[in-house]
Amino acid sequence: MEGLGRWLRDIVPPVALIVAIDLVVTLVFFGLSAGPARIGTLRPLGTIPAKALELVLVGAAVGAAACVGARRLDFSSIGLAMAFVALLDIDHLPSFFGVDQPIRPAHSFAFLAVECVALGLTFRRRPELVLLAVASFFGHIAGDTGVFALFAPFSFDYSSIDAYKVPFGVIAVLFALAAGYLSRRARITTNLHNP
Ligand SMILES: [Zn+2]
Questions:
Q1: Measured in angstroms, how far is the CA atom of residue 17 from the centroid of ligand 1?
Q2: HSE-up of 161 (CA within 13 Å, CB side)?
Q3: Residue 188: which domain range?
């Protein structure tokens, strides 16, 4: 039980923070967008199970890469990566309620920047969280198809990012490996100070 308690303490606070940021960014982008940009819709309900499975697998892959970097089976990194990857998509909550909104506000570099700063400032002793968030973001959008506005809210011009799937996937793996490496270093340092 102690293991489960520690696991929850590791993952719940960062996940709660990124969910809050995701929803705030969704709200802010909604306010900043003009009517013509609000063409985001919910995917057809029948395609949701397959997409959810894909997100779980991408999250597991990002978590596995972090474990390789950490050279140990790290359930916290796996749980965090799966949550970070899957929960990026809560940015189309308004369309779930039938509200016209911009396409996927959190699928933007502005969201990534805010997320990194917030995680970095809130969890100063866990810098690997920022790297894991970057890995999860790029892993997620590498698997996405359709059109996005990566530079929103500065531009709501939507375009396909399909051509960048491979580079985004490579970035995801590299950042996940680095996140694992950093958490390994932090553990070694902690063990040195608290033998
Ligand atoms: Zn997505």
A1: 18
A2: 23
A3: 2-34+42-193
